[in-house]
Amino acid sequence: MPLAYKRIKVYARLIVLVAVALAIGALLYKNNNRTVTVWFGGEYADVNVLWLAFCVGLGSIVVYWLMGTLVRLRRDMRELDQAAKLEKREAEQRALTKKLSEQEQRIDEKVKNALSDEA
Asked: From CA 31, how far away is CA 19, in angstroms rounded?
């Protein structure tokens, strides 16, 4: 039974793929000679619709890539900031540990001196 479901799934995907390819082919064929007037900071007359669609799609892909890059950059910057803060806290902790260790040694010496004086 699982093989039958798999066959149905494969053939359904094949049918969808062929239908999409036919739709794209019909779109290209029907719009091959159509032109439009476009304004991109200046008026461009008689631009082929297919070239316009291609440029818009390519621009969308570029903007999507740039936005993804900016999001990753922001995340990396945040991680660097957190790492710097953690490193600073660790340095402060080491300095405090060293200071407390020195204080403990002085207290131990005072106690030893006090005990030796009593003896």
From this structure: 18
Express each pLDDT in 6-46 by its tens digit: 999 999 999 999 999 999 999 889 888 888 888 878 888 88
Structure tokens at 56: 């818009």
- Whether the CB-CB separation of 6 and 25 falls below 8 Å is answered with no
| Residue in the structure block whose two tokens are 């799609």 | 57
* Cβ contacts of 32 within 8 Å, gap of 6 or more: 50
44: β partners:
38
- With tokens 């029907």, the residue in question is 30
The residue assigned the tokens 């300095």 is 95
Sign of CA dihedral 91, 93, 96, 97: negative
